[in-house]
Amino acid sequence: MKAIVISRPGGPEVLELREVEDPVAGEGEVLIKVVATALNRADVLQREGRYAPPPGNSLYLGLECSGIIEAVGPGVSKWKAGDKVCALLGGGGYAEKVNVPAGQVLPIPKGVSLRDAAGFPEVACTVWSTIFMMVHLKKGESVLLHGGGSGIGTFAIQIAKTKGVKVFITAGSDEKVKECIELGADGGINYKTEDFVERVNALTDGKGVDVILDIVGGPYVNRNLEALGKDGRLFILGLQGGPKGEINLGPIIAKRLTITGAGLRVRTVENKAQIVQEVLEHVWPEIEAGKVKVVIDKVYPLGKAVEAHRALEGNHFGKILLTP
């Protein structure tokens, strides 16, 4: 099969389309003929040599896909060859075929095209497992989403609104702020021209938000604590600004704050299957009801992965897809 290979750590230009060995469906796995895969920020880190795949996962990029099951391995009874599916992957999506544990496979939501469904698994599993399963964001509360125009941000806006949550976002331009509000956000902050702590206080009448989903890390940690209200929860999902920051412990004690974080790729197969089941139960109905849509910015053929990565690192809104 053809797959995108990282020829050496570096920029987008190191990605090469090559002929590689076909994967096979092992015990408890299915083999998917890929129709589309979606790009994620972790792909950039892996390309740069800063994020090695966890042991046992494919060395190729790609954390989600959609496609048609070509074969099932021993012990798989839920799926069969010919089923149209999408899947949460540990890697391998930038290829014509990929094998994946059967518990990480989802049916294509009704009303969503096979291609576009590739943009759902990673964001849905990430958002649901973090701000809902782990910090228990609930109806009547408020959330601040950093990176509102990202794939995770555009999905989180929509799913949070379906659960009765008040949503605020930060983004890097007035245009992105406007687009996020059109998606359903209750308020937006251009972090390049505005202080998000001041704006959050203004938008919440000084109360602060209940939950923050952060992708920046160290440079934002103290400001995030300032923007949280009493019993607030900070969930750190990414470290785009760096992993280190000096923390003022005062607000944590004064406001009874909680700081937590997690990744998705490093979780066990069993844990991922549990998350996928929750997503199927709580998220898929909202998608099928038309309340949550995948926001796709651009679509590239697999051989144009270099251009797709440049777009990912540039100005985009929502998801970027690759199609073999």
Automatic annotation (TrEMBL):
UniProt keyword list: NADP, Oxidoreductase
Ranges of residues in domain Enoyl reductase (ER): 10-322
Keyword Metal-binding recorded: no
Record-linked InterPro entries: ADH-like_C, ADH-like_N, ER, GroES-like_sf, NAD(P)-bd_dom_sf, Quinone_OxRdtase_PIG3
Xref: CDD domains: p53_inducible_oxidoreductase
SMART domains: PKS_ER
PANTHER family xref list: OS02G0805600 PROTEIN, QUINONE OXIDOREDUCTASE PIG3-RELATED
Protein name: Enoyl reductase (ER) domain-containing protein
Species for this entry: Sphagnum jensenii
UniProt lineage: Eukaryota, Viridiplantae, Streptophyta, Embryophyta, Bryophyta
